[in-house]
Amino acid sequence: MAAIESFDNIYLDLSKESGKSRFAENGLGWKPAGGGEAFTLDSSNIGGAQWSRAARGYEVKILLRSSGVVQLDGFHQEDYERLSKIFKNWYSVNLENKEHSLRGWNWGKAEFSKAELTFNVQNRPAFEIPYSEISNTNLAGRNEIAVEFAGNDGGKSNGHSGTGGKGKKASAGRDQLVEVRFYIPGTTTRKEAEGGEAGSDADEEEKNAVTLFYDTLIEKAEIGETAGDTIATFLDVLHLTPRGRFDIDMYDASFRLRGKTYDYKIQYDAIKKFMVLPKPDDLHFLLCIGLDPPLRQGQTRYPFVVMQFKADEEVTLDLNITEEELNGKYKDKLQSHYEQPLHQVVAYIFKGLANKKVTTPAKDFTTHRQQYGIKCSIKASEGFLYCLEKAFMFVPKPATYISYEQTQSITFSRVGGAVSALSTFDITVHMKNGAGSSQFSNINREDLKALEEFFKLKGLRVKNEIDDDTNLIAAALGDDDMASSDEEAVGPKADRGSADEDEESVDEDFQAESESDVAEEYDSNHESDGSGSEESDVDNRVDDEDEDMDDDEGEKRPKKKKKTA
Fold it and tell me: 415 pLDDT band (50/70/90 cuts)?
């Protein structure tokens, strides 16, 4: 057998382009066909090898002694005998022929090996997840766990994770799986979770299966505490976006948000903006962190994390760093001891560890109440709009950042027909290149002049539609006043609609023959009660009818009262 064995059109992990793979007695290597960084692996680090079907033909999966996995894909079926001899003779490792389960079942058994998580169906692997690709995990429900994969790096990776950061394999692919969820009911022991036999240790305590899976995965995938010692911890911090209370653990290269349901691990490199915003109630401060890539919670993305702190809450904190690190790596960035308001301490530590500039509201603008935040709303969501030196910022939800450089124009307008139209107005920010617009509604009318002056100071194009509306309203009101004065001059009595119907009016259908009063009671002495000759024909006719009735019925009845007009 030759001293070197070569194979063409081989893909390393999920690399976008193929390359040449060479095997020698002292190890193996791979180099992309189009040129670029080569990958080498020493023979002493090869702990095992597996042969199986894969996406581009047949794959050799190499299990490293340093708990890693290297995948070489693109071999032909006839290469098996040749590769089996290479691994046996040169690396003293058997090339195990492994068949995957092709049933398509979603119910099986998850097992933790040294380098990867394997999901088996009928004792055959359906898929494997290398620990190096897992960035985070959360308990998503009572018996459900979510496993998140590291985001891509803009496609700069060739596909191999090596000993660097997580997610280099998946980042090489055009499409990327970002999360998978497992439903794990019942209880189990730690030995069973790691693939041991059930009942091998009767004294071992049974635990909730999903919780045990979660704890084991955090340990195996080196999530959380393995990032190093915690430099600082802040407990029970209120977050407005995403909503909830989280503990903040700050490490050398990342920070972690630990909540009751979700945990997030965020690299400082992902922080693009950091803002400290005083809330208009003068009681709280908002710390807003802009992230790229954004935070994910299921299908929801959060490009900003918004924390709220009480303005008068003090804290005394000693950082968990050595004097050597303080005078070297963090010189002029951090202090060993802090005794200040909590929001200031958090801001200083984020600034020192993430090396990001802290942005505050522009000093050139304040509201009519001498505050920096403008109370307004985006659609149905109420919040506060801040004018920064280079951008607008609306918090807390939906957190919206609009750079002045991307702003085409700003329009002041009023919602037609609104009850509060005279006391509030709206701002519509139009973006350049047809990127859309954002509207901030229900802003106090007293802030109009200050905003207009600030926008002109920043060189922004402003269109004020409120003045035009005001002139039209004033003209309309003037016409109404003139019309009403003309109507009042027509007659002494104004038209009051149905109110006039309550007054007495002549009934045209009723025709009275006399204006004399009709006696209330009709009896035998009615003639003496009247005025004699002045009695009307109506009265006589009524009296005659009454006497006829008395004769017929043998008794006298009083006649009903007659109504007069």
Answer: low
